[in-house]
Amino acid sequence: MTQNLNDFLQMNSPYSMAIWHLMQREMSSKKPFGSHSITFNLTLAELRQVTGTENKLKQLVNFKERVLDKAIREIRDNCGLII
User: Fold this and answer.
1) Average pLDDT for residues 18-24, to the nearest whole number?
2) Of 21, 18, 24, whose CA–CA distance to 70 is shortest?
3) Is the distance from CB of 8 to CB of 20 less than 8 angstroms?
4) Could you tell me if 83 and 76 are in contact, meaning their C-beta atoms sit under 8 angstroms apart?
């Protein structure tokens, strides 16, 4: 099993998994420069679409707390990526 798959399997939230996949897609089309960082922009609509929350958690504060912050934490803790 590859390290990326092991990292992925450690995540508990389906939102984390969906955002991780979206990040992998974006990162595969870009090459890091010098600092080994990759920059890309994701819209709120893209994040809502991949997480299936288009009609859920309508207030941004709820989406941020329950989806985005949790996903960022899980991706950082399991994959060592800083987002």
Assistant:
1) 84
2) 18
3) yes
4) yes
